[in-house]
Amino acid sequence: MNKPAPDWHAAAKAVKTDGRALINGQRVAAVNGETFAKHSPIDGRLLAEIARGREADVDAAVKSARAAFEDSRWAGQAPAARKKVLRAFADKLLAAREELALLESLDMGKPVQQALAVDVGGSARTIAWYAEAVDKIYDEVAPTPATALALITREPMGVIGAIVPWNYPMLMASWKLGPALAAGNSVVLKPSEKSPLTALRMAELALEAGLPPGVFNVVPGYGHEAGEALALHMDVDAIGFTGSTRVGRRMLDYAGRSNLKRVYNELGGKSAFVVFDDYADIQRAAQTVAGSIFYNQGESCNAPSRVFVHEKVADEFLACVKSETPKYQPQDPLSGHAEMGALVDEGQLKTVLGYIDAGASEGAKLLTGGKRALTETGGYYVEPTVFIDVTNQMKIAREEIFGPVLSVIRFKTEEEAIRLANDSSYGLQASVWSDNLSRAHRVARALRAGTVHVNQYDEDDITVPFGGYKQSGNGRDKSLHAFDKYTELKTTWIRIDAHP
Ligand code: NAD
């Protein structure tokens, strides 16, 4: 028999959360006792008082992480033993899936059933995948003369600072935690002040799964306080950062001003979606772009926010996109069937509405949407919005909006489409739609982006790297390549005497 769908509203009323930091295996208040209030963007309800971590809290967490690393309580375990613990951690995440999905939805406004399937499911898969990988990776022996042996080995780096955003709080944390922990590092995680709840719960579940205390610490707090202290800390070996390009720039500065720690930035995007007139199923392309730009309220780094459509099929394409939008009208994220929920907070609401105003005042035309919705709830909702008559120079085509706003630009030739798509400071993802095999390959090669999709946009998996060209960042999350970020490469030369 199928399990009945949870009563998310009843569960939400019963939610109890502990907003204290988790350092060295213990829940602790901030050193100076300060907290900040965390309200839900769904309806403004108070969710918890969260510890306001600052330099002293970060320092305590880094000290505990360093001590755990130095005494080898985790790094010293055999890969197969680390695998066992991390697999148990993934199982704990799945066992707590409804609780975690609810916390995620309440904290940042996404539809709860999407949090359940994508955020919690994806996080558990990420942790399990790195757990499974770690006892299957071999090091290298160099092709040296017989008089020497050169071993090329990977070693954990030490203490990793992970600073993550609020749009996929668990998933972004897991993309850092999976490879960093599997490789034997200790981690200090600083979740966004806008979405700290699941990170704290994840750290508890990791402890229950057998991860030794001190290996995974969480310090909640603001970016300019806890985040800055972590990125400037002299005893942090690397920062895995996901967030805005503006703050990513600072990460490089913090590293330069402190210990030259490695900085891996996963930043913003303005991904291009290019539809040619030789693609037969225009409706499919339109449904896909609507599903992708409005997913997660448009708060996705890889949202295809710039569409370039060939002038011959533009009218048909736009009619299809418009007919898709009613499906994405914002609804109560706890209803269990909303396709779009609430924006993360009032600041984000103002930012998105500000971009909508800017689009209109620069001469773009609203095809649909453009307004705030569900105001009576006390939450922050915006209609799915589509602008036409956009030029690539307009603010709405150049800057990351991070909301449910699509900009559509017409083109005439392949060369023009490639030039416009690449005319961006970002390069996270792109998509090309064409039934001409050579054109699809040619354009996919020409697009300057970390991931290019052909005739689809939704494929994604932990098995492939994720990251951007240009100002969308450096380094890559996911896949075996992510181990490169959290390990040092060591060469060991051994002399072998030619004769006994
Ligand atoms: P943000 O840059 O404002 O914040 C990200 C994190 O950095 C938060 O934890 C924040 O507290 C912290 N922070 C802020 N200021 C800081 C400072 N001065 N020093 C240290 N830490 C600081 O980003 P956001 O608004 O939370 O997230 C949205 C951004 O994240 C978007 O630009 C989006 O594209 C990007 N993102 C990128 C990817 C990717 O994989 N490329 C994935 C998800 C989100």
From TrEMBL:
Example GO molecular function: aldehyde dehydrogenase [NAD(P)+] activity
Record Gene3D superfamilies: Aldehyde Dehydrogenase, Chain A, domain 1, Aldehyde Dehydrogenase, Chain A, domain 2
CDD domains tied to this protein: ALDH_GABALDH-PuuC
Keyword Oxidoreductase attributed: yes
Superkingdom of origin organism: Bacteria
Keyword entries, A-Z: Oxidoreductase
Aldehyde dehydrogenase domain span: 33-491
Coiled coil ranges: none
Keyword Oxidoreductase in record: yes
Sequence similarity: Belongs to the aldehyde dehydrogenase family.
Matching PANTHER family: ALDEHYDE DEHYDROGENASE-RELATED
Protein name: Aldehyde dehydrogenase
